[in-house]
Amino acid sequence: MQRCSWASDELSIAYHDQEWGVPLHDDRALFEFLILEGAQAGLSWSTILKKRPAYRAAFDGFDPRKVARYGEARTAALLANAGIVRNRLKIHAAVRNAKAFLAVQKEFGSFDEYVWRFVGGRPVRNRRRRLEDVPARTAQSDAMSKDLMKRGFTFVGSTICYAFMQATGMVNDHVVGCFRREELGEPKR
């Protein structure tokens, strides 16, 4: 069975085979990926995957309403939590992004409704032959990043937004030949 080459250990294979690139329309799960992709900046995704259960526990299951209410005491507790990335800027960004996320939900009815606009409401299906052919950013991720920043989000640069788009199925970047590409509606050619 052929997979994208980045799926190389048990955890990344499970993530690749079950989640990555699957169109996601659940606001809580979208918030989770937004926070995790920001936490990943400068680190490997495998590091974040290993810490994901601890993140879910530390951030109240990624309930944006709860995270938006975190104060200094909760931030201090998170900075002491060895199970997550203990970076003050990233933790503050999670709280700030929760507040901005709630504002977007209020304005658009859901974060899902807002974020999928950047791809016209349907997954972009790319035909990358090799991992090296996958760009770090696109015009759509540039637009998403710019708009998120305008709305008060942080740790949402274009590269982070593109990784978010890939993770949540807004973009299908499973390489040609990967079995998941076909399963997600893009037949092998």
Characterise the protein shown here.
The longest helix is centred in the middle third of the chain and has 21 residues. A two-stranded parallel ribbon has the order 1-2. The protein starts with 9 loop residues before the first helix and ends in a 6-residue tail after the last helix. Helices cover 54% and strands 2% of the residues. The protein is an all-alpha fold and 189 residues long.
Structure, briefly:
By secondary structure, the protein is mainly alpha-helical. Helices cover 54% and strands 2% of the residues.
Write the layout of secondary structure elements.
Blueprint: H1 10-18, H2 27-40, H3 45-58, H4 64-68, H5 72-79, H6 88-108, H7 111-115, E1 124-125, H8 139-150, H9 158-167, E2 171-172, H10 179-183
Parallel strand pairs: 1-2
Helix pairs in contact: 2-3, 2-6, 2-9, 8-9
Class based on secondary structure composition and strand pairing:
mainly alpha
Tally of extended strands?
2
Mean pLDDT: 95
The fraction of residues in strands falls at under 5%
Query: What does the overall shape look like?
Result: globular
Number of helices: 10
Query: What is the CA-atom radius of gyration, in angstroms?
Result: 16 Å
Major sheet, described briefly?
2 strands, parallel
H/E series: HHHHHHHEHHEH
Spatially, the strands of the biggest sheet line up as 1-2
Helix percentage: 40-55%
* Parts with pLDDT < 50 across at least 5 consecutive residues: none
Distance between the termini: 16 Å
